[in-house]
Amino acid sequence: MTFEIRWERDDYSRIPFHLYHDEEVYALEMERIFRGPCWSYLCLEAEIPNPGDYRTTWVGDTPVVVSRATAEAGGAIHAFVNRCAHRGAQIVRKTHGNAAEHVCIYHRWCYRTDGELIGIPFRRGLKGEGGMPKDFDMAAASPQRLKVANVSGMLFGTFSDDAEPIEDYLGEFGTGMVRRFFHKPIRILGYSRQLIRGNWKLYAENLRDTYHASLLHEFFVTYGVDRATQKGGVKMDARHRHNMNHAYTATDTQADAQAAYAGTAGVKLDRMRLTDTKLLQHTPEFADRMNLAAPTFFPNALLIQINHSLGTRQIRPKGVDAVEVFQTLFGFADDTEEQTRHRLISANLVGPAGFVSMEDGEAIEIIQKATRNERQATNIIEMGGRGAISDLAHRVTETPVRGFWSYWSELMGVEAPGGVR
Amino acid sequence: MIPAEVRHAAADLMAEYGLRIDEDRLEDWVELFDEACDYKVVIRENVEQGLPNVLMWCDNKNMLRDRIASYRDVNEYNLHWDRHVIGPLRLGGGADGVWTIEAAYTLVQTDLEGVSRLFSAGRYLVEFVLAGAAARIRSAKVIADTGLIPTLLATPI
Ligand SMILES: [Fe+2]
Question: What's the CATH number for B4-144?
Answer without folding.
Answer: 3.10.450.50
